[in-house]
């Protein structure tokens, strides 16, 4: 499938393009960023919360769980951090932005697939790292985007103490997404 995806267009890849793309994306996506990287100009801090409903019908919403901090802790002080710890959540969010933009309404099958991919990453991480009572039926993501400050010039003044998030920080709450088979 990867060969058919990267090979020049031919009768087979044209006829089975939809099936080939369904197999390739999002896990085996090919791009040229290794050779022409696009450095990040913002930090995305992604958090998740869950919704569960009791047998009585009462809805309980959890507090926010910081998925970005989970990834950061898996990478810090690890001489050989895994690629998944460094990039899975970040790349899923980037793909979501590329397919949805500023809206949270899917306009293609690829957008739906990327949304499901992001939802599944968040649900699996909640399940693995934040066990709680009962099942959760929905999750919601919150993404706080902050610009990255430029590096200080060589020999310039020392960095000041960290300041509170700037007014330029942007917070986006995604809709509640249904999940299944995620017992806490």
Automatic annotation (TrEMBL):
<dbReference type="Pfam" id="PF19136">
    <property type="entry name" value="DUF5819"/>
</dbReference>
<feature type="region of interest" description="Disordered">
    <location>
        <begin position="147"/>
        <end position="176"/>
    </location>
</feature>
<dbReference type="InterPro" id="IPR043857">
    <property type="entry name" value="DUF5819"/>
</dbReference>
<protein>
    <submittedName>
        <fullName>Uncharacterized protein</fullName>
    </submittedName>
</protein>
């Amino acid at each position: 499938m990867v060969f058919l995806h990267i090979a020049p267009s031919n009768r087979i890849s044209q006829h089975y393009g939809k099936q080939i793309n369904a197999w390739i994306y999002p896990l085996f996506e090919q791009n040229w960023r290794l050779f022409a990287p696009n450095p990040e100009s913002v930090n995305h801090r992604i958090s998740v919360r869950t919704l569960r409903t009791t047998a009585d019908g009462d809805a309980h919403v959890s507090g926010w769980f910081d998925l970005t901090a989970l990834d950061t802790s898996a990478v810090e002080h690890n001489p050989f951090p895994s690629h998944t710890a460094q990039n899975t959540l970040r790349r899923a969010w980037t793909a979501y932005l590329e397919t949805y933009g500023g809206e949270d309404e899917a306009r293609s099958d690829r957008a739906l697939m990327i949304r499901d991919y992001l939802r599944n990453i968040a649900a699996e991480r909640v399940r693995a790292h934040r066990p709680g009572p009962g099942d959760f039926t929905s999750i919601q993501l919150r993404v706080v985007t902050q610009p990255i400050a430029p590096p200080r010039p060589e020999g310039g003044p020392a960095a000041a103490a960290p300041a509170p998030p700037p007014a330029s920080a942007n917070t986006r709450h995604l809709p509640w997404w249904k999940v299944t088979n995620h017992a806490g």
